[in-house]
Amino acid sequence: MTDIKKRNRRILTSMILTLLVSALVGGIAVADRNIRRMGFGDDRPMVGITSQNGKQNLEVCLMGQTYAMDVTGVVTLVRQAKEGIGHLLGNE
């Protein structure tokens, strides 16, 4: 019986810690966004997809840094899936 209690305690502890870390990261992101908006007049979205030279980039602006990742393949795949589903449903 004690093994079950220990296992349940570990699961509950990990769930609570995950929730707290998620809340902390979310709070930092919201505070960063509001500080940039109020202090610098920067209204760029925190996360967005931009197009440059035929490439799709996922840009994340956080803590004064901008990180970009090429997501052209993912965007193309999503568009093809959307067209395929529309074709199957007859919504061409």
Briefly characterize the structure.
The chain is of the alpha+beta class.
Give structural notes:
The structure is a single chain. The chain is of the alpha+beta class and 92 residues long. The chain folds into 2 domains: 43 residues; 49 residues, no CATH class. It has 2 helices and 3 strands, in the order αβββα. The protein has a 3-stranded antiparallel sheet. The protein is flat and about 60 Å long.
Mean pLDDT: 84
Helical content, roughly?
A: 55-70%
Structural class: alpha+beta
List the strand order in the largest sheet: 1-2-3
Q: What's the helix count? A: 2
Strand content: 15-25%
Sequence of secondary-structure elements: HEEEH
Shape, per Cα inertia axes: flat
Unreliably modeled segments: none
Q: What is the count of structural domains?
A: 2
The biggest beta sheet reads: 3 strands, antiparallel
The total count of strands amounts to 3
Radius of gyration: 21 Å
- End-to-end Cα distance: 60 Å
